[in-house]
Amino acid sequence: MSREKTVFKTTCPRDCYDACGISVLVREGAAPKVMGDKDHHVSMGGLCGKCALAYNGVYLDASKRLTQPLRRTGSKGSGSFERVSWEEALQDIAGRLKEIAGTKGSSSIYHTHYTGTVSMLAGWFPIRFFNRLGATEVDPDTVCNKAGHVVLGDMFGTSLTGFDPEQLANAKTLMVWGANPSHSAPHMHSRWIKKSDAQIIVVDPIAHDTAKAASLHLQLRPGTDAALAFGMLHVLKAANLLDQEFIARHVTGFDAVEHEINSATLERTSSLTGIPADKIEKAALLFGSGPSLLWLGQGVQRQPQGGNIFRSLALLSVGCGHLGKPGAGFCYMNGPETRGVDMSFLIGAELRPDDGLSVSHIDLADHLADADKVSALFTWNNNIAASSPNQSKVKKALEREDLLTVVTDIFMTDTAVYADYVLPAASFLEFDDIVFPYFHHTVSAQTKAVEPMGEALPNQEIFRRLAKAMGYEDDALYESDRSMIDRLLCQTSFNGTFDDLKAIGTARLFATPKVQFEELKFATPSGRIEITSERLAASGHPLVPFAHADPAPASGKLRVLSPASKWLMNSSYGNDERIRARIGEPKVYLNRGDVETRGFVDGDTVTLATSAGRLTLRVAISEDVPPGVALVHKGHWPRHAGDASNVNVLNPGLRTDIADSTAVHGVEAELMRA
Questions:
Q1: CA quadruple 644, 646, 649, 655: dihedral positive or negative?
Q2: Cα distances (angstroms) measured from residue 642 to each of 110, 397, 604, 628, 639
Q3: Nearest to 69 by CA among 353, 465, 437, 355
Q4: Taking CA atoms, which of 69, 373, 555, 587 is between 20 and 30 Å from 1?
């Protein structure tokens, strides 16, 4: 490499919706430096603070990275390991997998994963190996957003085609419901929302920075979202803002919710939600006048009635006819399909010897504790000891000496310390890949800027080598990265090669903003938007959505909300020292009234307790938090807390009404002096 600086354009591969362009400067004999790419033509402003600190900190710190395969030498959880070669590690793992498959069956081998750095190959190619093996998948979306995906897919035929963010220029109103862009999508907050001329409505129990910057903030009681949606529909109907022609042509079953709409008076809705009636009316009329966009945050469906909530919220766009035209639509997530990409080939479903088995993250702790069900566990691209419900049970189950546990990661996480083998993965700076962000209709190059640290390997190469150790001969298990990248890229409208994409970083794929459901055709059995669902009813769910509101917490208890913080992205970055210094010790943010009525003061040490566990925190009084709510940010690494736990220790495994997904925002806890 030349002594002159070498600049690589790449993409920040975090799940914050944005296509954030970054550049990497590399000089001979010096560590690379990761910076915001101000020239990146799609970037919403360059690298955010938390990403910049971590990418120039712990990600480049060889003392913190995993650089060689490790084999456990002490008891599980002790963190005692010895270095071994890749060949030795993979041969032993393969031998034990074959033995398990031959005695207890491949279905007793579980694998947990998530999107990791959101890159396509590293996130999806490893599933080919587990399909060939016949392993049981722990459904990744059940720890995040499954309920929303299921009900939107049921109503519209897809949950992964949302509005194009560029349509905000044509919208009069944007309603952000249950999302916190200021923390989880900072560039969308600062360079999209705040620079828009549209009226911004935010619906959220917490007065976060996006809510404070909004034209109108509806600070509802947690769990009353469906009641609020029906109350707004009541206002819209009274104002003749429901689009009856659109409903007649493109919707089935809307008449089945008419009675519920009629009953959702402003007085009733205000009483249930805690929002003044005039604010509800104003928000409804702003949204109904249109054209309007509705951003459905993932957090809002992480409640006990999350499925019903999303069915109810979607009625607002449907009832007003805010679909199929510029400046209108809703967005939960934009998947690769919005760019014309079918990525199903990446997982190799044809390799499975059966139809596939999966379990929910809600049941993971109980399954891991049962030796008759689970004999081996692989985790990659996630950190279950930090992010899964029933945290105490999960960690206890990971202590099983008879549970073969293999963890692939770039750091020694709270999960990795329980592994029999820890396999070092390359970071996103160390291999080429493709990124389709959750929001923008773009494609980005993840560009290799430096060589992997030590003996670390990209996920896809790790599982190619493991497939070889297993003796598998299927060609699909050995497909090259470049072949898969080319197959993905050729499905898009990008007119060039991957090398061309690397030169610019990110490509906008459409000359003009796309209109969501422009042809008003829906991939449902009827070809229309389906409000009534015989499919859900056959599974024991209500035929139609209804104006539900969760009751207030039991006497003396608080509703625990655990969204992302300003400085963490899930549990990523939780081991960076500079970020930890900015966060300080874990806190519980409380309304002043809840603190004073319990005889506490700001800064006191308190304990939150549920049937699942206890968490000791420092009190911080916040005017952003409403009465009855305890705000505890997610993402802390348990090992860095005094209790060796984070907020997930409080979650007993609450599940949503639909899809066995996490209802983490429904946890209720007692608050007591530590």
A1: negative
A2: 31, 21, 15, 25, 8
A3: 465
A4: 69
